[in-house]
Q: What sequence folds into this?
């Protein structure tokens, strides 16, 4: 559902976005010594947020719970690493399309095999294919095996011999990541409002009915899977550029699980929710890490707590808070304020699978 | 085979589940613009028949001829695109979408393709118009902005019909449209169906005999997966075999 | 390739397959009967291995350690079922995935806290310090044969229990129609608890028994879990027979893959899975 966002929620999100965009200004004053580290951290989180949004297209919108999504993220990074000459910069106009092309192709093939299954099968199959990607790079000597590979010189962004962007510049890269994040969000919003997006959203609610209406669900699921995989590849490309390094763990299923937690924590099916989820989870991770060596323990407890206590994620809470009708919301109400579509705002809620289908349906709750 | 005057026709349609024969050699012809009811006791194989007709199940044998072409084995999404729309016995809508979006999505299915990625779905004026028309026809125009899952049961059943109408079908296959409805809701629905019977070829699977007799011109009776009798309403009502097998005492009332 | 070498590889493949079956059968039963996808299942394999290593150090006897680790794994499984998994029965697969993923994080960290990050090994018990000599150069270690025999015996025992006993009848009823079990008036809570504990114990036993031939290392549960998923996908979710054949197939594919295409050995397993998916998307026995 291309939910309409209440004006208050939109303002809140814009304020958060502005705070993030201006971080290079106020962060320096507020954190002084830690500033460079935080810049790097936030850049990394924005990249993970892109990955989380792409997974939301599958999990939150189409109802496809993939546990192998990180494989495309890692693949995008590896393409850059493999194509980068050792001592000079790769040409961005060449490597970026290649990275996207390769991840698109890989997600098309994996998607073709996976979407034939559903429910628990889909989870297991995507997990297995994700691990296949992990082992491919882990066992491959050419790709550096389990040690991974370095990208010594970041890709050059040039036109007619003029350097447009210096990706080695932390500040520049921060804004490249931010720009990509916003662009991907806008693209996905557009996509969800399109006829294609409406069909995919409907598949997540009631696939059987979608087919009865005359749509071939397989085709739409496959295209959605491919788009999500390609965006994940874009994220991986950025991550590899940022760290100058790739390793098999980027593709591993712990990474996939981690991103899935971001989506759920943030609120699936809302696009902005998974972005918030990425920030909250990563900052929590950072906080745990700075307190204890055994940070995975509180992480695990947190994941379990989210499942038990926060079924609609942070976005669900925000939507609830920001759409609480003011006592005298006489005329119009919230919907007419934005007038974008016929849907009231809502975050997807997870409901038990019906015994008949055994599939983990992701349905949306009426408000 | 010679050309028939049926728009839709089954020949020896058979469906076997494991060892269970759900439909055995069912041959029924449906004429254009005719309201044709398929009745039978529980377990007679009516639902299976509907699922076969609409591609929701592949047949084990036999043919389904639509305008003379065999469509047996086509998947559901292709069958509906030929113009054979169906409603479901169990309410089968998108409960979290608005009433309008349910109908709009149905109408959108008639675009040549929905693999359109950038232009907003709501900017397709023709689709919006069809959706509104369907809601109007089903008596839901005033409910367009309601979230479907929050409407009354009867309204959800009407929406079910609106969604079929929005797909601009030639044939309406309605699987127990009155199931679970109260008296008042039923009356409204019967009036709606009578109205539709004037404009569409109607295939009605129904339990409610009052409704069947009020709407249908032709009646087919299924028992134990086979076709017992098929013909004009009065003729079938009078048939001894049908009365014995199915209508029983209840039929005396009519 | 000479025939003895081939035979050894077949034996290795079968032995590995049988070991996988012990773990995968629990996974498929827990899904089939309880409707739960349990990512933390591999953690019990790891737990069994670490318990065996740890207890073998304390008691000086691997046999005692294996026997002791069995009730421990079952007990921990039972407690986890009662405390956390029970919440999941009414939830969808996504919640199950996430909660059991959270459990993995906790299990892995607990392992690091108790036993550290080091890789450990367990010495071969003296009773098995011999091999069967096949040719001048080739021989087959007796422990691997013993391991295969134990796993095969357990597989047979499982078959008998499922096919012949009242408990097995519930299990079969549950696997084909979960709601029916409740309708039969069975104590579902107890049944589920026992199934989960048995599944945990089987995985733990597999881990414990494998210690003399593999190293005890962090993350060992993850590897086995993924392979078991492949096994279950191939065999068909909920089918014990499918799990058995899937395990054999994967055991052999993995072993021969390592021999013939050592650089991409882990690929062979997924290649087999992809082929099965193309052919039968719901697995061979679903």
A:
């Amino acid at each position: 559902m291309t939910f309409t966002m209440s004006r208050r929620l939109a303002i809140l999100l814009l304020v958060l976005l502005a705070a993030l965009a201006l971080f290079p200004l106020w962060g320096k004053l507020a954190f002084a010594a830690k500033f460079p580290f935080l810049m790097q951290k936030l850049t990394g989180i924005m990249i993970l947020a892109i990955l989380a949004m792409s997974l939301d297209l599958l999990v939150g919108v189409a109802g496809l719970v993939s546990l192998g999504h990180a494989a495309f993220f890692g693949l995008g990074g590896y393409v850059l690493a493999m194509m980068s000459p050792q001592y000079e910069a790769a040409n961005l106009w060449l490597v970026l399309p290649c990275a996207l092309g390769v991840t698109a192709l890989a997600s098309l093939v994996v998607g073709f095999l996976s979407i034939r299954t559903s429910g628990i099968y889909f989870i297991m199959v995507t997990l297995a294919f994700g691990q296949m990607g992990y082992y491919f790079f882990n066992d491959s000597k050419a790709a550096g095996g389990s040690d991974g590979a370095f990208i010594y010189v970041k890709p050059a962004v040039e036109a007619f011999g003029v350097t447009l962007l210096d990706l080695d510049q932390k500040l520049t890269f921060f804004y490249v990541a931010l720009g990509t994040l916003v662009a991907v969000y806008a693209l996905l919003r557009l996509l969800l409002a399109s006829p294609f997006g409406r069909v995919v959203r409907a598949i997540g609610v009631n696939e059987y009915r979608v087919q009865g209406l005359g749509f071939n669900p397989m085709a739409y699921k496959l295209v959605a899977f491919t788009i999500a995989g390609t965006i994940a590849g874009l994220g991986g490309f950025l991550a590899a550029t940022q760290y100058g390094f790739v390793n098999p763990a980027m593709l591993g299923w712990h990474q996939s699980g981690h991103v899935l937690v971001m989506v759920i924590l943030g609120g699936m099916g809302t696009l902005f929710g998974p972005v918030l989820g990425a920030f909250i989870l990563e900052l929590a991770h950072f906080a745990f890490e700075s307190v204890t060596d055994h940070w995975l323990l509180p992480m695990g407890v947190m994941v379990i707590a989210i499942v038990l206590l926060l079924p609609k994620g942070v976005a669900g809470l925000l939507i609830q808070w920001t759409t609480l009708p003011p006592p005298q919301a006489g005329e119009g109400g919230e919907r007419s304020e934005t007038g974008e579509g016929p849907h009231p705002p809502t975050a997807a809620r997870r409901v038990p699978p019906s015994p008949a289908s055994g599939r983990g349906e992701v349905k949306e709750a009426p408000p | 085979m010679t050309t028939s005057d049926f728009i839709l026709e089954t020949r020896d349609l058979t469906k076997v589940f494991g060892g269970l024969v759900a439909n055995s050699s069912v041959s029924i012809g449906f004429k254009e613009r005719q309201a044709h009811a398929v009745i039978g006791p529980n377990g007679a194989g009516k639902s299976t028949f509907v699922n076969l007709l609409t591609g929701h199940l592949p047949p084990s044998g036999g043919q389904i001829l639509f305008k003379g072409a065999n469509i047996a084995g086509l998947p559901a999404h292709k069958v509906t695109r030929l113009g054979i729309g169906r409603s479901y016995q169990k309410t089968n809508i998108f409960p979290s979408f608005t009433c309008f979006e349910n109908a709009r999505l149905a109408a959108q299915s008639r675009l040549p393709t929905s693999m359109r990625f950038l232009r907003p779905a709501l900017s397709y004026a023709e689709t919006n118009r069809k959706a509104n028309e369907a809601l109007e026809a089903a008596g839901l125009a005033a409910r367009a902005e309601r979230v479907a899952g929050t409407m009354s049961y009867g309204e959800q059943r009407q929406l079910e019909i609106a969604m079929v109408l929005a797909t601009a079908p030639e044939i309406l296959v309605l699987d127990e449209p009155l199931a679970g409805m109260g008296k008042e809701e039923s009356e409204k629905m019967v009036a709606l169906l009578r109205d539709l019977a004037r404009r569409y070829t109607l295939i009605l699977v129904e339990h409610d005999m009052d409704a069947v007799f009020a709407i249908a011109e032709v009646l087919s009776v299924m028992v134990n997966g086979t076709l017992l009798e098929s013909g004009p309403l009065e003729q079938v009502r009078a048939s001894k075999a049908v009365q014995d097998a199915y209508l029983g005492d209840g039929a005396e009332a009519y | 390739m000479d025939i003895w070498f081939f035979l050894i590889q077949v034996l290795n493949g079968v032995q590995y397959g049988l070991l996988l079956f012990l773990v995968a059968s629990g996974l498929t039963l827990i899904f089939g009967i309880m409707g739960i996808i349990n990512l933390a299942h591999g953690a019990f394999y790891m737990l069994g291995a670490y318990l065996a290593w740890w207890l073998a150090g304390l008691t000086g006897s691997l046999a005692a350690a294996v026997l002791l680790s069995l009730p421990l794994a079952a007990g921990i499984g039972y407690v986890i079922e009662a405390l956390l998994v029970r919440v999941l029965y009414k939830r969808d697969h996504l919640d199950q995935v996430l909660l059991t993923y959270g459990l993995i994080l906790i299990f892995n960290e607990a392992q690091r806290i108790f036993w550290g990050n080091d890789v450990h090994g367990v010495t071969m018990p003296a009773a098995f310090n011999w091999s069967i000599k096949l040719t001048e150069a080739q021989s087959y270690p007796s422990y691997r044969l013993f391991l295969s025999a134990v796993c095969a015996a357990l597989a047979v025992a499982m078959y008998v229990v499922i096919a012949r006993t009242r408990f097995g009848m519930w299990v079969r009823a549950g696997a084909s129609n979960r709601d029916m079990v409740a309708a039969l008036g069975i104590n579902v809570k107890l049944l589920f608890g026992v199934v989960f504990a048995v599944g945990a114990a089987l995985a733990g036993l597999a881990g414990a028994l494998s210690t003399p031939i593999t190293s005890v290392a962090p993350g060992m549960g993850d590897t086995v879990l993924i392979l078991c998923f492949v096994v279950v996908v191939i065999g068909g979710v909920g089918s014990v027979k499918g799990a058995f054949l899937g395990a054999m197939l994967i055991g052999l594919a993995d072993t021969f893959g390592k021999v013939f295409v050592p650089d991409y050995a882990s690929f062979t397993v997924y290649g087999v899975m992809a082929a099965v998916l193309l052919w039968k998307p719901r697995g061979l026995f679903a």
